[in-house]
Amino acid sequence: MSLARDTIGYEWRRYVAAISIIALTGLIFYLLLGMLLNQWRSFSAFERELNADIIVNSEVATARYRPITQLRPENFYLHPEIVSAQPYLRFGLIERTRLESGEFTLLRAVVVDTADGAMSFPKSLPDRSRSLLRNTGNILVSERLLAQMELGTGDFINISDRPNRIVGAFTAPFDNRANIIMSIQTYRLYRGISQDTNPSLILLEINNLADLDQTIAELNSWIAQYGLIALRPAEFSRSMSLTALRDTPNFLVIFYIVILVVIVAILIAAQALRSAILAMRSQFATMKALGIPGWRVSLFTMEIAFWTGILGAVTAISSALLCQAILLKFNLTILITGQLVVLISGALMAMALLAGLLCLSIVLRVKPVELLR
């Protein structure tokens, strides 16, 4: 074991404050960024499920929906690589209903095309769900809503005073944006759909995925004159999430809170490390009296900061996973991914090392003569 780790283990009371501050900062990061990441994913949950190779959208509304009136899906068969072109009609219902507890909740329904080969049918749903939804009046309901309403498969939910039979349940990635999935046939019970309705998107399937980039470039050179743009599905969902997140009223508030937390945490952690290092002045003086050069003593100090950051990061992720499990029982989702763990752990390590750098002035000013005091 290194001397720095031995020191932290033996003098752990001196470093527990710095470790706790770093861990608390990490926990706040996980909670705030985990909520933002969950929102980010929910904004484009259905768009990520579109089973298309290329998505055509209005260029002035790259990250939003706007009816496409300039071209029809059949126009895209002029390109030799296009084997299928389908319209994506974005419909939905929002209705408030009363639970048995007396509280109100929102029924948020989205509409899917259940036809064979429909690229707009969510690719994560099984074919059995497609077959069940084809029967008018059948719906899928999120597990979260089923728990709230104390219902199960085979029961009925009234939407606009019409009973709809629950034929299955679903979870992520849809349940943050919608809690009911219905077919176009069922939607027609509530709203009329004209055959001439302009699509919100046009979904394309190409013959050879190896030519995807070239096909997108060729399509864009053609459809740009109509104010349209062709995108990969991942590009479309990412731009849509970014725009929706930027338009969220709380986004800037959370962003500024994160910046403030970082600054305050660095200052407090630096002060906590400074107090621990100040208590070791005699040890540093002894090391210099033994002829150990100042840079080695400074390296020892930075190693202490490094291990403080490691312990803080491990404590932070452990606490975040515990909070994630607890909040899930209250229907609050905190999304923690591997990339987020790497990002936050790296930030905590950088914060601890920066705090260590701020403490180096103490080490460099220590003189062996202090042992005579």
Average pLDDT works out at 79
Radius of gyration: 29 Å
Measured distance between first and last alpha carbons:
32 Å
Quaternary state, please? single chain
Strand coverage percent: 15-25%
Major sheet, described briefly? 6 strands, mixed
Content-based structural category: alpha+beta
- Tally the structural domains: 2
How is the largest sheet built, in terms of strand order?
Answer: 3-4-8-5-7-6
Number of strands: 10
- What overall geometry do the principal axes of the alpha carbons give? elongated
The helix tally amounts to: 12
Order of helices and strands: HHEEEEHEHEEEHEHEHHHHHH
Percent helix, as a range, is 40-55%
Uncertain segments of ≥5 residues (pLDDT<50)? none
Would you give an account of this structure?
The chain is of the alpha+beta class and 373 residues long. The chain folds into two domains: 3-42 and 248-372, no CATH class; 47-246, no CATH class. The chain is 49% helix and 16% strand. The chain contains twelve helices and ten strands. A six-stranded mixed beta sheet has the order 3-4-8-5-7-6. Helix 10 (294-328) packs antiparallel against helix 11.
